[in-house]
Amino acid sequence: MRNLLAHVGFWLSAIAVSYPYVLYPALLSAIARRRRVPTPPASSETPSVSVIIAAYNEAAVIARKLDSTLSQDYPASRLEVVVVSDGSTDRTAEIVAACPDSRIRLLVRSARQGKSAALNCGVREARGDILVFTDANALFAPGAIRRLVEPFADPRVGLVSGQGLYGETGNGTARAVANGYVRFEALVKSGEGVLGFVAGADGAIYAIRRALYEDLPPTYVNDLLHPIAAALAGYKSRFDPEAYTVEPASHGAGQELQRHVRIIAQGFAILIAMGPQLARRRRWKALWMLASHRFLRWISAFALAGVLGTSLAGHGLLFKIALLAQGVFYATAAAGWLAERTGRRLGLLAAPYYFCVVSAAGALGLLRFVRGGVDATWAPRGDVSDRAVGAVADVAADRWSPGRER
Fold this sequence. Notes:
Blueprint: H1 2-32, E1 49-55, H2 62-70, E2 79-86, H3 92-98, E3 104-109, H4 115-125, E4 130-134, E5 139-140, H5 144-149, E6 157-166, H6 173-195, E7 205-209, H7 222-232, E8 236-247, H8 253-280, H9 284-298, H10 300-313, H11 317-341, H12 350-370, H13 386-398
Parallel strand pairs: 1-2, 1-4, 2-3, 6-8
Antiparallel strand pairs: 4-7, 5-8, 6-7
């Protein structure tokens, strides 16, 4: 009986681990192959666009961000940039104020209140029909805003997500790991977008209709809440991998872990608050995608523990093989941790190491949410170096796509 329970527990845990990373993407691909995103109807109108940037101590990057925004091939008379300095203590506000372009509007908040409050402030002052949300250190690729706005010619589309790429090289092994993860995310979101819902926009670059925006609660992450809001209002979401930004990579997995923990804690709060509303309005597709893409990934650490525990408790060849495979996997992840600590390139060690980091972040994010430690503020992720600026041109020239190696 004990061995039977071990078998049942093992397979349930193994499915819970593999489903969001293997089975769900495969299901999306199979469904998406039978469908095509309809081409938006031709429109003689060019929507007015407001680019909203919440900035806290971004003096090192804000000038380049403004340059990459103002140089977009979008009609100048239909584009404005709203920068909200959220209690910055450096020269962020001074740099923005010194920019002579009349399309830039600066809003200064003397006290830091967090990203959601800053975005609410920016949207209240924005004039555009389409709101584009982006990060201060994420440089727009050429044509990014135009591509992001084009799908809104279809009146059924309420949100369009682009994607953020990482453009630096060197010993920043987090770049190589994160870019592999971004490629995987792009494949998943491409399938979701075909079906009309994206289980989380990319916070570095996405757009939403002004009419759908409602003030964000202080601790809600906007890029997860907004696709849900669009679905509740009866709109579709789309994904365009060619509308992208390029930003510097995190300084190692430690910084990446902290970022994921904060985002996941906020994500749990949103799913618990918004899930019942989606169910009441029968938005079953959105619930399925959120559960598959987000929730099951966030609890993968517990499923991994289930696989390990049942492998130790069971008897037979299956459990011996499973233990050996897990030993190799976790040893490889540990080698990735050691390689990063010693400044070496991760190479093939990147995937298991990053998988463990993200899984740990899910458990820590849930713990933070349960303890009520959801953060409203965020920290800048660093300078946009010349390498990152050059990477925008490199990526644009190479026409990067999710299924193609650079």
